[in-house]
Amino acid sequence: MPEQNADARRIMLVVAGCLIPGLALQAVLIDPIGVLLNVLTAGVVALATDRLCLRLRNPEGLQGKATMRPQPTVSDASALVTGLIVAAALPPGTVSAVALATLTALALGKHAYGGLGNNVFNPAMVGYAIALISLPISTANWPAGSSASTDALSGATVLTTFKYRGAATVDGIWTEASGFGQLAGAGYEWVALAFGIGGAVLFIRGYAAWRPAAGMLIALILAALAGYDNGSSASLGSPAYHLFAGGTLLAATFVLTDPVSHPASHRGQWVFGLIVGLLVYGIRAWGNYPDGIAFAVLLGNALTPYLDRRLPTAESTRA
C-alpha cells in the first residue's frame, strides 16, 4: 500500500505540474487575482473534504494503524488534481461556485464510490456539472480580459455569443473573439493551447492514455466539418472554433484521460472518445447549454462498464 500511494502521488504531482502552465497563462491573460482565488479555494476545499471523507470512511484513523487492512490516505494528491481542474474550468473569482464544485467532486464523485480507483464518473466533472446547474449565472460570467471577449475554458463568453448569435455570422464572431497573435492582449485560445500542451506531456511520458483524447478531437473535428458552411449565420461552427472556443483541450487532455473512468481496452478508449466528441458537438449545436463537455463526459463515463464488457482485448490497459 505505501508503494501504491507513492506511485499514485508521483503521477498526480506530474499531472498537477502539467496543469500549472495553463493556469499561469489564464492568470496572465484573464484575471490574476481571480485565478489565484480559484486555486486557493479549490486546494483548501479539496484537501479538507478529502480528509473529512476519509475520517468518515475510516473512523479508526486516517493511516489505518488500528486496522489490519490498508487504508487510503490523503497523500496520493488526487484531491489536489481534482481541485486544480475545477479551478481551471470555472470563471476566475467565482469562489462559491469553485467551493461547491470541489466539495461535491470529492464527496459525491470520489468518496461516495469508495475513494480513489473506484469512482464511476470523473469527479471534477461531477462537481462542475452540479455547480453549472446550481449556479448558472456565476459559472457563465467570465471576465473579458484585457482586450478580448472570449474565454478558452468554460465556454461562457464566445460559446454563449455563438449560441444566441441571431443573424451574426460565425466568422464575424470568431474573428472578433480570436486571440491568436495577441498574446499581449487577451488571446484566450493560447490558454487552451497551453492546457493541450500540458496534456501532451502526459501522453509522451506515458502517464495518460492518448486514445480517448484523440477520439474526442477527431469526432469533434469531423462533426464540425460536416456542419460548417464557411461561416454563415446558420453554420454550426468551424473545427478551429470547436477546438479553441470551449473547454475542449482541457477536457481532452486532463479529464477524458482519467484512468478510472475511461475504458480499459484500446478499442474501448477510441469508442469512448468518439462518443464524447459527438456528444459535445451535439450539445453545443442543439442543446440548451452553450458548452456540453461536462455532460458529455459523464454520459461517456456511464458507458464505460458496457464498453469494458463488449470490447475486451488482450492488450487491455488503462495506460
From the structure above, extract its key features.
62% helix, 0% strand, globular
Explain what you see.
With 319 residues, this protein is mainly alpha-helical. The chain folds into two domains: 2-138, no CATH class; 195-310, no CATH class. Helix content is 62%, strand content 0%. The chain contains 14 helices and no strands. The protein starts with a helix and ends in a 9-residue tail after the last helix.
In short:
This protein is mainly α and 319 residues long. It has 14 helices and no strands.
Question: Could you give the count of β-strands?
Answer: 0
Q: What share of residues is helical?
A: 55-70%
| Average residue-wise pLDDT | 80
**Mind telling me the C-alpha Rg?**
19 Å
Structural class: mainly alpha
The main β sheet shows up as: none
Return the domain count: 2
State the low-pLDDT regions, or none. Answer: 66-70, 146-156, 164-168, 176-186
How would the global form be characterised?
globular
Distance between the termini: 20 Å
Q: What is the H-and-E element order? A: HHHHHHHHHHHHHH
Proportion in β-strands:
under 5%
Number of helices: 14
Set down the secondary structure blueprint.
Layout: H1 2-29, H2 32-57, H3 78-89, H4 95-110, H5 123-134, H6 136-139, H7 158-163, H8 170-177, H9 189-205, H10 211-227, H11 239-244, H12 248-254, H13 266-286, H14 293-310
